[in-house]
Design goal:
The chain has 181 residues and is α+β, with helices and mostly antiparallel strands. It has helices at residues 28-33, 44-50, 90-99, 115-118, 133-137, 157-162, 164-177; strands at residues 10-12, 19-21, 39-43, 55-60, 66-73, 83-87, 104-108, 124-129, 140-149, 151-156. The protein folds into 2 domains: 10-64 and 150-177, D-Maltodextrin-Binding Protein, domain 2, CATH 3.40.190; 66-148, Periplasmic binding protein-like II (D-Maltodextrin-Binding Protein, domain 2), CATH 3.40.190. The protein has 7 helices and 10 strands.
């Protein structure tokens, strides 16, 4: 089966005890945490937002590198009052601004974050930034990096104990082909 063209969600591999499961990134930690999958690949942003309890994170795969940042209209400065922040990363945003002692009303959005300050829905946004081109095209600028993001290998803690040789072998093989950093 061609993974790119098939509508199937589970694929056999050349290893009889390994199957590939196609699921939404935000669901990967849930499947791995609950033991439906032994290992998974997920963005660090998802782990930071939803938590990594019950999971090991043995490898930074270095895929899809970007930054989770605050951003706002060019020249924006806080007046010290409450700020409104639009993001799909509600938990990360709340923790970030609380650590800074900033009173932030966090507004959950699912996309087009740059529109929120333009439409006066929010003062700032918290979003994934790669090149910053979308920010600039919408009169915004990155302000502060919250976290460096990339894809991570995650492992169910119970599976790591019960299938240690198999999973450690996978980790070792993946680590061997990752570029040195």
């Amino acid at each position: 089966d061609d993974v790119d063209r098939s509508r199937k969600l589970i694929f056999d591999t050349t290893h009889s005890d390994v199957r590939l499961v196609i699921i939404r990134g935000t669901d990967v930690p849930t499947y791995v945490r609950h033991g439906a999958a032994d290992v998974g690949v997920v963005g660090k942003d998802i782990l930071l937002e939803h938590g990594a309890e019950g999971l090991y994170e043995p490898l930074d795969l270095g895929i899809a590198r970007c930054r989770l940042m605050t951003a706002g209209p060019v020249g924006w400065r806080s007046d010290g009052a409450r700020i409104r922040v639009a993001t799909k990363f509600v938990n990360i945003a709340r923790r970030h601004f609380a650590r800074q002692g900033v009173h932030a009303d966090v507004i959950k959005l699912y996309g087009a974050m740059e529109l929120a300050p333009i439409m006066d829905l929010a003062d700032l946004i918290v979003d994934i930034v790669d090149t910053g081109n979308t920010l600039r095209a919408n009169g915004m600028e990155p302000l502060e990096e919250i976290a460096s993001i990339s894809s991570r290998l995650i492992v169910n803690k119970a599976a790591m104990r019960s299938r240690h040789a198999l999973i450690q072998g996978l980790i070792d093989r993946l680590a061997a082909v990752l570029p040195a950093r």
